[in-house]
Amino acid sequence: MDSYLIARLANDAQQAGGCASALDGAIGAAIGPAHCADRTGGARGPEPRQPSPFCHDGTERRIQRPKDAAQQKSHYSGKKKCHTVKNVVLVDKQLTIAFLSQTHPGTVHDKRIADATPYPLPPGSHLLQDLGFLAFTLEGVIIEMPTKKPRGGELTPLEKEANHALAQRRVAIEHVNSSIKRCRILKDVCRLLRSGARDQVMEICCALHNFRLRLDPWLPIS
Could you tell me if 198 and 192 are in contact, meaning their C-beta atoms sit under 8 angstroms apart? Predict the structure, then answer.
């Protein structure tokens, strides 16, 4: 799927009632039905939301090998064994993408991205995360994270069971990341060099995921 077709699909989705805000210089896109305008054209404020589970995770996408030596070093991901850029995605209980962080080089740690990202979470919410966000906290938000195995020790059977239960809930965001990358422009090596083009492609693919979810909802996070 090329970028022109993706842009046409996103435009059709927006006209059908979906919305996706542009990525500004400081934060990523906040995409979700709570920020849309109503069908009559009038502005509609954010709808009240009950505290519910959220989940966030980092996702990487491959880019063309930079020519600059410094950029080659900063964008090389030891995990992917190639040059990448990274975003952190935040999803709500219904697995709708509620927030997309700013784009960072592949070497930047997930927690560092999250620390620079002001998540719009209501007080009392639960945030599910993996050990890549160790020590990350938000005021008024309950963090649910697996218990880390102690050095030279072992986890208790109760801790292993709790980690397994949390992993079964957290796996939903991996499905969201896969849904975003159904578009080959994210799955394959991105060779777009124009400023802002990579961010725009990511925003459009996130908007398409939200649009698909409105037509065919998934099972929510328990």
Answer: yes
Strand partners, 87: 59
The pLDDT tens digits of the residues spanning 23-58 come to 333 333 333 433 333 334 444 555 555 568 999 999
- CA dist., res. 28 & res. 31, Å (int): 9
The list of the chain residues with pLDDT below 50 reads: 1-10, 13-43
Q: Which pLDDT belongs to residue 80? A: 87
The conformation of residue 27, written as its DSSP 8-state character, comes to S
Q: Is 139 helix (H, G, I), strand (E, B) or coil?
A: coil
Place of tokens 């927006």: 14
Tell me the whole-structure pTM to 2 decimals.
Answer: 0.75
Neighbours of 63 (CB within 10 A): 20
For 121, what's the count of Cα atoms within 13 Å in the CB-facing half-sphere? Answer: 28
In a domain, 108, yes or no: yes
How many domains would you assign to the chain?
A: 1
Residue 132: φ, ψ to 5°: -70, -15
With respect to residue 47, please indicate whether it lies within any of the assigned structural domains. no
- Rounded Cα distance between 30 and 51, Å, is 18
The residues, any chain, with a CB within 8 Å of residue 132's CB and separated by 6 or more, are 57, 58, 109, 110, 111
- At 49, give phi and psi (nearest 5°): -125, 135
> Which residues lie below 8 Å from residue 102, measured CB to CB, with a gap of 6+?
23, 26, 27, 28, 87, 113, 116, 117
Expressed as residue numbers, the domain containing 134 is: 3-41+52-215
